[in-house]
């Protein structure tokens, strides 16, 4: 059935290009996360911790996103993966953490970007199931835990902000980053000591 706009402009319903996105908007998630993060500039009391109800609500919003992807998937492998993430969130909803264990926005901003040239046909986001090359403006990131752990930033960002772990192997990315920074500092101090020995 045609609507008045189609009738007025002599457009047949099948001529209208339909671009359906599979990614739900996560603005309510990020808004809620900004309210419960203790590092947020909008947070009035730096010593306050989020209530269990607030933490469970953030987990529930993320779980709703994953349920949306689960309902749209036809792959049994992706279905099992999404179900494991949803189960993990269900456990966190039952026993909410006292603070947000996720990574900061600056951490997300510093994640390694994957260029379109290095992507192959068939490479897809493990969360939404969309092929990276199908999206003209996809922003693909590679997590530091493994070179093949690549995701759309829009899909993995909420998980990382709330959980702080790789969705695939559940490695804590905060610990990984701290270890790399410690190794970098150690290598710099070793070089300084070698330099000092040359001129001593």
TrEMBL record:
Keyword tRNA processing: no
RING-type domain ranges (all copies): 125-170
UniProt KW keywords: Metal-binding, Zinc, Zinc-finger
GO (cellular component) term, any one: cytoplasm
Region (Disordered): 1-21
Pfam families: zf-RING_2 (PF13639)
Single GO MF descriptor: zinc ion binding
Gene3D superfamilies: Zinc/RING finger domain, C3HC4 (zinc finger)
Ranges of biased composition (kind: Basic and acidic residues): 1-18
One GO BP: protein ubiquitination
Presence of the UniProt keyword Zinc in the record: yes
Name of the molecule in the record: RING-type domain-containing protein
